[in-house]
Amino acid sequence: MSFKPVYLSRPGVVFPETALSNEDVLERIRRNYQGDATTWEGIEAAIRHVFQLCNTQTRYLDLDPSHRVADYAVRAAGDALARNEISAKDLNMVIYGGVAREYFEPATAMEVAGKLAVAEPVHAFDVTSACAGMMEGTQIAAANLALRDEYQHALICAGELTRQFLSFDIQQPDDLIHRVAGLTIGNAAAAWLVGKQPYKGGSLKLLEMENVSLPSHWGLCSAPIDGAFTSFSKELFRLNVHCAPHMKAILDRVGWAVSEVDHFVFHQPSKAVILKVLEALGADPEKAIHSHHLYANTISTTVPVALYQTLKEREVKPGDKFLLSTAAAGFTIVNAVGEWVED
Hints:
34% of the residues lie in helices and 22% in strands.
């Protein structure tokens, strides 16, 4: 999707206070385990292998049921607004793109907008697209700003609190088939802005975005209304073969060679998956940011979190070229390309 130039702000990011190591997670599983020692040895070895493959080291989890999803999103939104010197009164759109939610109606975006005291009337709604929700929301915001002269700023946010949806109840090796991916998930909230003018302190001038969905694979990953998250991880990760060709195609449309991209900011399911995609793309792996080991897979917030980490770790200069990309259950791919600008 090509559009009139719009700008993606620096993100606001919030994490729970409690950090869990791999050993902490294994201990939680061990406490629930009721089988024999020999079987446990095999289960533990398999989990450790997945952690090593993904480079999972730390995740932040908030398991307190009294903490609200929208409140985390509000905190991240407040951070993004402050970082970019924008008032909530200036927002024309509020989009919530997270998987986590407290209820079916109203839209979680309504609670976020209400608690931010956004000026009414405002265009507020939810987008649900698994881990791609925030990127999908960003594409929708960019399209709306291009179509509506009166729209100047959109806020896209998510508060990913998994709580009871992560299961630490693993009793036999077969349980790992569906549940081991959940052990590499962490909690985070994130928010960023899309606007018609560059944001103070630097922002990404978006040149093009695209969505590619392959719904024949819809059953490989699920977060049910009642129950724990499950995933056929091997089959889902094999779908990464679809990512690189679409990344190459969007770069071709804006006239960039792969070698010209300065920063690859990807969804963070696993370091191994990211490296495979970069290899298929023919990209320099040193140009990719890796944040999975710091925060784990934070679901729809991974791309904003990875951009946050990029800006934290690297010197980003005006004119630097970015490729942002996410892949999600469904199977959905969302790509964006842009150039860093400073006001």
